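User: Okay, second chain of the day. Same drill as before: sequence in, structure tokens out.
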Amino acid sequence: MLYGIVAATTALLLAAVLAALLRAPALRLGLLDRRQRQRRVPLSGGVAVVLATCLVVVAGDRTGLAPLGEGMGTLLAAGATVAALGLVADAWRLKTRFLLVGTAVAAAFVVPYGDTGVPAGVAAVGWIACVALAFRALDHADGVAGTVGVVTAFGVAACAAAEVMDGLAVLLSVLAAALTGFLMHNWPPARVALGGCGAMFTGFLLAVAAVTTRAGQDAATGAGVLFALTAVAVADAALVVLARRTAGRPLLRRGPDHLAHRLRRLGLTPAGVTVTLGVASFAGVLVGALVHTGVLGARAVLWVAGGVVVVVLVLWRVRARVPGQGRGGPGARVGQVARVGREVSPRHGVRPRRQPAALLQPPRESAESTEPVESPLRASRRMASSQVSGSLRVRNG
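Assistant: Same drill. Structure tokens below.
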């Protein structure tokens, strides 16, 4: 008990310090994410979380104060591999399909096939990879991924403790403490972000731990528990897939159509969005933990599923800003073209109004016609030249 408190405190402080120290190198290396158009957020928080978690857990195992137990070393190594893969994606924009395959390969080494069976184990591998990517998608807004990760880590740790998996419970407690230290710099407005490195590491460890705690028990109930523990990440992924499919946009292209974006459109502040999603995650995790321990029946998960369906359908109707529209988009540019006219000068009479900088661009092709669209500046010059030539023809005639 004493070691658990010391380990959690150490992980919290270490993650907070590392997140602050690694911010400047990330800025110099250009390891950044752009949020709210002009704000640049370094993607160094994930490295701090991974280092703090691994160092504290390995130190406890090496000193004998908190042995990891069988298989925990492999789990930590696989999680570090996934974190390295996410760091590569942060630096070089690795395609999502490669992240999915790499995470699935890492998950294949840690799934307990002896307890789950081969078919269920293969399904678990796919589920773990999807959850890791879903947590990476949650890192699009300040504080969301870290808050959901802390709540989920405590819930899965409670399930592991109920199964007397002390090593797994310690690992998740240290992870939750490291994420809490990271949130000191990630709370809105964020100064650092998890990035793919920290988000995929968090999602991977949580998903593998949840599968391990449910291994060897009823498969249907286990699937419901796993769903409840990750309800917010599942809801966010479902909303994105539904919105992009119905709008005909590519699934893997980033856009402002996640849970946090739509909640912001409803008027919530960034901190309000984080708190709302944290409360929703706590509700799902609480139901999953109570069903796992037998306090609630398996049908309680249906309430979580119904809530996810309702939230997804309601927020799907909230209009999201499509990339390329809004301020500075095509719609705004058309409005600027329509407002271009003439103004009267007291000294020179009628003169053309100065064109906006956005209109002084080469002509683009219209989506409905193959003829090039003439810029307003060129059109005004052509009209002026035609009037002059016409008057010359009249005089010379």
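The longest helix spans residues 270-293.

User: Thanks, on to the next one.
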